[in-house]
Amino acid sequence: xxxxxxxxxxxxxxxxxxxxxxxxxxxxxxxxxxxxxxxxxxxxxxxxxxxxxxxxxxxxxxxxxxxxxxxxxxxxxxxxxxxxxxxxxxxxxxxxxxxxxxxxxxxxxxxxxxxxxxxxxxxxxxxxxxxxxxxxxxxxxxxxxxxxxxxxxxxxxxxxxxxxxxxxxxxxxxxxxxxxxxxxxxxxxxxxxxxxxxx
Amino acid sequence: xxxxxxxxxxxxxxxxxxxxxxxxxxxxxxxxxxxxxxxxxxxxxxxxxxxxxxxxxxxxxxxxxxxxxxxxxxxxxxxxxxxxxxxxxxxxxxxxxxxxxxxxxxxxxxxxxxxxxxxxxxxxxxxxxxxxxxxxxxxxxxxxxxxxxxxxxxxxxxxxxxxxxxxxxxxxxxxxxxxxxxxxxxxxxxxxxxxxxxx
Lengths: 199, 199
Prior knowledge:
Number of strands of chain A: 6
Radius of gyration of chain A: 20 Å
Largest interface: A-B, 40 and 40 residues
Number of helices of chain A: 5
GO molecular function, one term (chains A, B): DNA-binding transcription factor activity
Order of helices and strands of chain A: HHHHEEHEEEE
CATH superfamily of the largest domain in chain A: Hotdog Thioesterase
CATH architecture of the largest domain in chain A: Roll
Helix content of chain A: 25-40%
Strand order of the largest sheet of chain A: 1-2-4-5-6-3
Distance between the termini of chain A: 59 Å
Oligomer: homodimer
Protein name (chains A, B): Fatty acid biosynthesis transcriptional regulator
GO biological process, one term (chains A, B): fatty acid biosynthetic process
Structural class of chain A: alpha+beta
Keywords (chains A, B): DNA-binding, Fatty acid biosynthesis, Fatty acid metabolism, Lipid biosynthesis, Lipid metabolism, Repressor, Transcription, Transcription regulation
InterPro entries (chains A, B): HotDog_dom_sf, Transcription_factor_FapR, WH-like_DNA-bd_sf
């Protein structure tokens, strides 16, 4: 066994370790971490039988969809990869060029809103849930090609309205934050209150 | 001239008058107003040379697009039919089945957000404008097939941030309200302030 094989084996062991802790790193991010080429990471993944990121996300997402109550699987904007109904969830969505402004390549805000809103509705433990209010902050502009990782958490519930906080990150950096007030279906609406809701 | 012709002429005169004041009424709404069939309204429109609502909207929208500075024409979600840069604007968007939940036919909230956000950005008098914050209320659920009429108004400007209020109505009833804080491009960002923005 030569030095090259040694370093490859060490790198592959670290790769398995890192992807165990951060499963949503792209090949580009892994290449930067190991100071090797993207092609090297791809060969390592193949040798280890680890599918590419898109496939890893789809595999995780498919296993979660049957747990969502409030939305049909094809109605979730983004891939839900973690879900504890009534508690929290995680979704991943890759923004492509079609989601960005042509002049600037900046991803359009309503897609970040859509991902966060879908996830917030999905983690509500009810057969139908409608958004009544939302407060959102766009912290940083996001370029097409980025993977958006949204994390939603139920913050409380009162009179049938569930408050859900969502934080969306790209490369560990917060790009979007939202606070949703979501109504479980079947709650009587009183005039002038949080409203009937939508989505 | 007989009575039938008399009433038709009177109705057609009122039709022109009503559409002058409320140009975005559908044939169904006009039929209900006149207590006649939708077919009768269509024949009246044809006799008067008034195109159908979709055409009326497109005609108005095309004439407005060159005035928008901050977005390319195909980037506006909805049709902008009125625009006073830096002051106010009106956009119309018809929600189809593809924009609604399959189970309930309720239009998804992020489309109402997209229409309002597009319009809010479009009325800003700048070459590029990014949304920093938004507060939105969903007042009533909207069914697929509805025409959403959004009206945006600039409420103030401070340190390069423009505040825009948007109200969206269906059949004169408020279904959605939003308050956007939009950053003109080129404004220096100070850490922890309203952020870099998106859209």
